[in-house]
Design a protein that fits this description.
The complex is a heterodimer of chains A (224) and B (225). Chain A has 224 residues and is mainly alpha-helical. In chain A, 81% of the residues lie in helices and 0% in strands. In chain A, α3 runs antiparallel to α6 and α3 crosses α8. Chain A is globular, with a radius of gyration of 18 Å. By secondary structure, chain B is mainly α. Helix content of chain B is 80%, strand content 0%. Chain B is built from six helices and no strands. Chain B is globular. In chain B, 36% of the residues are buried. The chains are: A mainly alpha (224), B mainly alpha (225). At the A-B interface, α7, α8, α9 and α10 of A face α4 and α5 of B.
């Protein structure tokens, strides 16, 4: 089983590339920030209104941001002509996906956690008492977005108009993530917060199903 | 040629008979009266559309495993036909909803998930137009088709759990549901007619796709000379 060691090495490479420039992280953070500010004009962000709308807006912002953030995932390899080298270097192409989706999950989670305090202050929602639950939802949803998104970015990287195509492929596919994570977040922002286990379980199932699909079909996505 | 025309005429007859049955043979429903009769088309088209998407899924899987062009042609044909049927569903739904619910559209579970399903397959067709090379287009769109089909039950589940207004399933919907026997017969006849139409359209579309790919091959050969 060389899958996990291989994936770990590749993950190290992904993280090194990103943290050298931090391009992805900074642009995504700024993008979400812009969306959050713009959204505040579409309704009156009082405490009660925020409770109703903020979770949905937060997840829409994350989802849109991720559709931009996942663009360079395979494009970068294509521009530098490193995809064939990557494929030759591992015995199981699933390792490439595993590394990329782990890196993407990490980046997404990082931006989400970075923006959470700001969001809480601006939209007046108490996040501290439910922070650990929020982190769990953020993790499961980001993982789901990254699994499906990484697979789709491998597809869109090989097409024309790829910058437009990825959101078109990704967003309808990720509807379940949006619905479930919004609902769970909403119940966590209630005056008496509660945990929707149904939603958390749902997110976990989504992750599992798509991880299995990626494991089964991933190698075909990287064929020359 | 004659054979195809005969089959086409037969399918047309079936659809016509189903229309006749749903207007004149099926008994009138107690609360919705004549309005309910659209159900024979609406639900039957939905079933046929879903079957077409299932055929597309199977064709996609077969393409990924076998890499034969015909599975790619079947994939695109059934996706387009399925999309046409789901479009009919999305149009007949609001026609029924306006008098019954008082509004054309509501963000209810089945409406929303059908709409998302429709969007997923629009994306599938869009993806196909954006990849030039035939083999790559076939493979990548087959893979997206597989992911999309896997997503369908999850989308339905998610939206059904968290929001709903559509009438509960009447057929195979558990205790308390069910149709009048005549209605049931008319409904299943409509389902049969719609499936016949769906299969006929897929076969015709498949033939067209085959002509197109053959033409493409000839054109390339001519260019090479």
């Amino acid at each position: 089983m060389s899958l996990l060691p291989n994936a770990a090495v590749l993950l190290g490479k992904e993280l090194r590339t990103e943290f050298r420039s931090r391009e992805l992280l900074t642009t995504t953070v700024v993008f979400i920030l812009i969306v959050i500010v713009l959204f505040s004009f579409t309704f009156d962000p009082t405490s009660d209104e925020s409770r109703r709308f903020a979770p949905g807006l937060l997840w829409l912002a994350f989802l849109f941001a991720s559709s931009l953030m996942l663009q360079p995932c395979f494009l970068r390899e294509q521009h530098n002509d490193t995809l064939s080298a990557l494929r030759l270097s591992v015995s199981d192409p699933f390792a490439i996906f595993l590394a990329k989706l782990a890196a993407n999950t990490l980046f997404l989670l990082l931006t989400e956690l970075l923006l959470l305090p700001l969001f809480a202050v601006m939209y007046n929602v108490p996040v501290v008492p439910v922070l650990h639950w929020l982190v769990l939802v953020f993790f499961l949803a980001s993982l789901g977005i990254s699994i499906a998104g990484t697979a789709l970015s491998a597809i869109s990287a090989q097409a024309r108009m790829r910058e437009l195509l990825l959101p078109l492929l990704m967003l309808p596919l990720l509807t379940p993530i949006l619905v479930a994570s919004t609902e769970v977040t909403k119940s966590l922002f209630e005056r008496t917060p509660f945990v929707q286990w149904k939603g958390i379980g749902f997110l976990a199932v989504f992750d599992l199903v798509f991880l299995t699909a990626l494991w089964l079909f991933g190698e075909y996505l990287l064929e020359e | 040629m004659w054979k195809r025309a005969m089959i086409g005429a037969f399918v047309l007859f079936l659809v016509g008979a189903a229309a006749y049955a749903s207007f004149f043979i099926a008994p009138e429903e107690k609360t919705m009266h004549v309005l309910q009769r659209i159900f024979y088309f609406h639900a039957a088209a939905a079933w046929a559309g879903m079957t077409a998407f299932f055929i597309c899924f199977v064709a996609n899987l077969l393409y990924v495993w076998r890499r034969e062009e015909r599975w790619d042609s079947l994939g695109i044909s059934s996706a387009e036909v399925g999309l046409a049927f789901i479009t009919v569903v999305l149009i007949t739904g609001p026609i029924w909803a306006k008098p019954a619910w008082g509004i054309y559209w509501t963000w209810d579970a089945r409406l929303t998930s059908t709409f998302v399903l429709w969007l997923l397959y629009i994306s599938y067709l869009l993806l196909r137009t954006l990849i030039e090379e035939p083999d790559r287009r076939a493979l990548l769109s087959a893979l997206f088709g597989i992911f999309a089909f896997i997503d369908v039950p999850i989308v339905f589940g998610a939206i059904r759990w968290w929001r709903t207004q559509h009438p509960a399933p009447v057929i195979m919907g558990g205790p308390g549901s069910g149709l009048d026997p005549t209605m049931n017969k008319v409904f299943f006849f409509s389902v049969l007619a719609m499936h016949a139409l769906m299969v006929f359209l897929i076969a015709e579309r498949y033939r067209l796709e085959k002509l197109r790919t053959d033409f493409e091959v000839v054109r390339r050969e001519a260019e090479a000379i």
